[in-house]
């Protein structure tokens, strides 16, 4: 049951069996049906979730009332509002919703602190996870500003090869920062080449 998350976290720091036992004992397993709101803007986020199975989107609503998708979290990804809610102790500005039936391992701030106290090397692993998340966010920002819609879509397909069959196209368009109609034109152009 824990092999997937243990493999994921051990990519950054090697752990012995006792450390992994502590890690596994502190997380909570949850199954959540699709279209479930895990977090709403204005709430405090009190979890970090590792996606075992399924697809989640994290988004905000802009000044025009449009949804802007910031992240898709699929198998082996983490999702939360770490930077704003957990570390800044401010109400979240984002929504987190399941797009498919999902299963997760959940950490709360309390269980994570207990983990760090009992198995301190996990603090390094989670720091590396945070650094990787920041690097991905910066790259995404750069791509949004500097790349064409076609380049962004091709990179999306490379990063998420199966997601275009799993989620509605308007979600992908929102993630790419383009309209659904323009995405349709981009896809048609790529199909012709």
For the largest beta-sheet, the strand count, sense and barrel status come to:
4 strands, antiparallel
Rounded to the nearest angstrom, the radius of gyration is 18 Å
Query: Approximately how much helix is present in the residues?
Result: 40-55%
Oligomer: single chain
Shape: globular
How far is it from the N-terminal to the C-terminal residue, by CA?
A: 44 Å
β-sheet strand percentage? 15-25%
**Order of helix and strand elements from N to C terminus:** HHEEEEEEHEEHHHHH
Count of individual helical segments: 8
List unreliable stretches of 5+ residues. Answer: none
Protein name: Crp/Fnr family transcriptional regulator
Domain Cyclic nucleotide-binding: 30-117
Pfam family, one: cNMP_binding
Organism: Flavobacterium turcicum
Q: What would you say this structure looks like, in words?
A:
With 193 residues, the chain is an alpha+beta fold. α2 (17-26) runs antiparallel to α4 and α7 crosses α8 (180-192). It starts with a helix and ends with a helix. It has eight helices and eight strands; from the N terminus they run ααββββββαββααααα. The mean pLDDT is 93. The chain is globular and about 55 Å long. The chain has helices spanning 3-9, 17-26, 82-86, 109-118, 121-146, 149-159, 169-176, 180-192, and strands at 28-32, 37-39, 48-53, 56-61, 67-73, 78-79, 95-98, 102-107. It is 47% helix and 20% strand. The protein has a four-stranded antiparallel beta sheet. Strands 2-7-4-5 form a four-stranded antiparallel beta sheet. It comes from Flavobacterium turcicum. This is Crp/Fnr family transcriptional regulator.
